[in-house]
Specification:
339 residues; alpha+beta; five-stranded mixed beta sheet; four-stranded mixed beta sheet; 17 strands; 26% strand; elongated
Length: 339
């Protein structure tokens, strides 16, 4: 029987250490055990946080197109953009982006360079703009089924207004005194057209006929502007209508170079200007000449008749020319907005 075995066959427990040593040893073991658990939990958390994302390949079930995705440590999935490989390609996989042309001729040439059978033109009337989508949606000729496309390759053209169009429209309806109106006529006299009633379209003829208008020529308007300048500081003595459809203004003046003779004023005049900048197409517009006597003198202004119709005609003719010269279908409006 060894020293560890007692008479009853059991094991004799070791001698108990002194109480001081036993108390400290137990406390140390408990503390170490508890701290080990904390360290393990912290290690797992750090490992999860710094775990590297996985890049895997997935296959789209319908088209069987493969793609790379990134599985992040939190389990979320992001698509790996094909652009990350562009630096290694000899050319991009597809053409994307929007080219901006500043002349309609260049727009047409650009479209003819890159157009496909599926390409299409879109015209936006509110913005006076035109654009082409080269990779637009199409249909299967055999089945008639739609063939969707990305629509990411485009060219756009914004129609710029001509300086003449802007000048006449900005002062349309603005009241001017004698000097201001005379100066305006002198500045814009080159835009005034010499026409007879028969030279105008049916709508313009009807309008002038109904209003009993008298068309003023450029020469007549120059005479009017000079007469207004001579009598700028004069007192208006008479304004009346005469049987010819014109008006007359008489002045009493203290100026030695003013004869004080009545000035004949036409009721309408015609301007011929381009609607869009750098355009070779000019359009006629009828302007009503208005004036009013007040205690302060005579106020002049003009009103352009149906400028919106002329703009619509000019825009329509321009976009139809683009359609004819490119051979592409033309749609008035905008393409689908992806949702």
């Amino acid at each position: 029987m060894t020293d560890e075995e007692n008479e009853e066959g059991g094991v004799t427990p070791p001698a108990a250490p002194n109480s001081f040593h036993s108390h400290n040893e137990t406390t140390y073991r408990d503390v170490v055990a508890d701290r080990t658990g904390d360290l393990l939990r912290e290690s797992v958390a750090v490992a999860r946080e710094f775990r590297k994302p996985d890049v895997v390949g997935v296959i789209e079930p319908d088209t069987k197109v493969s793609s790379l995705v990134v599985i992040k440590p939190d389990g979320s999935v992001d698509q790996l953009s094909p652009s990350v490989f562009d630096a290694y390609r000899g050319a991009p996989k597809r053409m994307t982006g929007v080219a901006k042309m500043t002349r309609l001729e260049s727009f047409i040439d650009h479209v003819n360079r890159f157009k496909q059978s599926r390409s299409a033109l879109f015209a936006v009337e509110e913005k006076a703009s035109l654009y082409a989508i080269f990779d637009y949606n199409s249909v299967n000729d055999a089945t008639g089924d739609p063939l969707p496309a990305f629509g990411g390759h485009r060219v756009a053209y914004d129609f710029p207004l001509s300086e003449e169009w802007k000048a006449w429209n900005v002062d349309n309806g603005r009241k001017m005194d004698l000097g201001q109106f005379a100066e305006f006529l002198e500045d814009r006299i080159v835009d005034v057209d010499t026409v007879d009633l028969d030279d105008l379209n049916t709508d313009m003829q009807r309008f002038i006929g109904v209003t009993e208008g008298k068309i003023g020529t450029p020469t007549k308007l120059v005479e009017l502007s000079r007469g207004l300048r001579i009598n700028e500081e004069s007192t208006v003595t008479d304004i009346r209508n005469i049987s010819s459809g014109e008006g007359q203004i008489s002045f009493s003046s203290e100026h030695s170079d003013s004869a004080g003779a009545p000035l004949s004023i036409p009721t309408v005049f015609v301007i011929c200007i381009p609607v869009f900048a750098r355009s070779t197409d000019f359009y006629r517009l009828v302007c009503r000449l208005r004036y009013r006597k007040s205690l302060a003198g005579v106020t002049f202004w003009y009103e352009i008749w149906r400028a919106d119709r002329v703009f619509d005609v000019a825009f329509t003719e321009a976009i139809e020319a683009a359609r004819d010269q490119t051979g592409l279908p033309l749609f008035i409006g905008t393409h689908e907005v992806r949702v």
